[in-house]
Amino acid sequence: MDMLILCAFALVTAVVGKAVEPGSRGIKLLLVMTASALIFAKTADFLSSVLAEIRSLYDQSGADPQYLRILLKALGICYITSFTCGVCRDSGEETLASQTLLAGRIALLVTALPLFEALTEIIRMLLV
C-alpha cells in the first residue's frame, strides 16, 4: 500500500511540475527536489528493515564483518549517486550528472579495494 501512495505522489508531482513548467523552471526544480527528498526519506524506512535482515543473514554466515560494512557502504554510494544524478538531469545539468556518476564509480572502486585484496590473497593461497 505504501508503494502505491509513493507512486501516486510521484505522478501528482510530475503533473504539477508539467503545469508549472512554462512559468518558472526554478519552482519546478524545487518541487521535484522536495518530492524526491520526501520519497527518498520514506524509502529509507523500507530500507531499514531490509538492512536488518541482511545483517541477520550475514551474522549467521560467520563471515568477516568488514565485508558487510563494504557492502553497505557500496549500496549507499550507489543509491546516493543515483539520486543525485537524477536530480541533476531533471534540472538540465547533464554534465554535472555525468561527473557525479563518475565520482560515484570511483568512490565505489575505492570502497571495493579491500575485497579485491582479499580475493587476490585467496587466489594466491589456492595457487601455492
Based on DSSP secondary structure assignment, what is the total number of beta strands? 0
Range of helix content:
over 70%
Let me know the average pLDDT. Answer: 85
Strand content: under 5%
Q: Span between N and C termini?
A: 55 Å
| Total helical elements | 4
Show unreliable segments: none
Assign an overall shape.
Answer: elongated
**Biggest sheet, open or closed, and with what strands and sense?**
none
* Pattern of helices and strands: HHHH
Radius of gyration: 20 Å
Structural class: mainly alpha
Number of domains: 2
Brief descriptors of the model:
128 residues; mainly alpha; 4 helices; 0% strand
Commentary on this structure:
The chain has 128 residues and is mainly alpha-helical. The protein folds into two domains: 62 residues; 65 residues. It is built from four helices and no strands. The longest helix has 37 residues. The protein is elongated, with a radius of gyration of 20 Å. The relative contact order is 0.08.
Compact description:
The protein is an all-alpha fold and 128 residues long. The protein is 91% helix and 0% strand.
Secondary-structure blueprint:
Layout: H1 2-20, H2 25-61, H3 65-90, H4 94-127
Helix pairs in contact: 1-2, 2-3, 3-4
